[in-house]
Write a structure and sequence with these properties.
This protein is α+β, with helices and mostly antiparallel strands. Helix content is 59%, strand content 16%. Helix 1 packs across helix 3 and helix 4 (88-101) crosses helix 5 (119-127). The radius of gyration is 27 Å and the shape is elongated.
Length: 173
């Protein structure tokens, strides 16, 4: 690999770090090419991108990134960077699911919203429900007091009707 190619790889990694909402460091030691292509395809479907490069080039790429500087201790051996262009929890879920299926693949760390995430934090993010489900839960929580008020008012009117009906039956008998 000549100097221009190395500079292109570093520039590609820098743009990936800058444009992504989250990035993850994954260990790929022992994976076959077919397995790497499978995880790349799975990530591509969810708006993610896996980039394998030399560790030295990755270290140069993260020098200017605030969040990614915390990832430097994890940059050793055979690793890859995963960039999440859209939703980070979906990408984390794909990575953790693939790690369960393949022992050679491991999620080492992540970087999201200028915070470095360890392996356990990435698993917690992966266990979160999708964004639509979270929004529905918030909407239901906001809607609950109004629904309870409407139910209570309906019960008051229903009780009044029952009392009036009981009075009418008492007068008729």
């Amino acid at each position: 690999m000549n100097r221009q190619e190395k500079e292109a790889v570093v520039a590609s990694l820098k743009t990936g770090l800058d444009q992504s909402s989250a990035s993850f460091v994954v260990g790929v030691k022992g994976l076959t090419v077919d397995q790497l292509e499978k995880i790349r395809g799975d990530l591509r479907q969810e708006g993610g991108k896996l980039h394998v490069a030399k560790v030295r080039l990755m270290k140069r790429a993260i020098e200017s990134s605030q969040c990614a500087e915390g990832l430097e201790p994890f940059l050793k051996e055979q690793i890859a960077l995963v960039f999440a262009q859209q939703e980070a929890p979906v990408i984390a879920k794909v990575l953790c699911g693939f790690a369960k299926e393949h022992e050679a693949f491991s999620v080492l760390a992540g970087c999201m919203d200028s915070a470095v995430l360890d392996q356990d934090a990435v698993k917690v993010i992966a266990s979160l429900p999708p964004r639509e489900v979270l929004l529905a839960q918030v909407a239901a929580t906001l809607n609950a007091p109004i629904t309870s008020l409407a139910y209570m008012l309906h019960q008051l009117i229903a009780r009044l009707v029952y009392v009036l009906k009981a009075i009418e039956e008492k007068k008729n008998s």
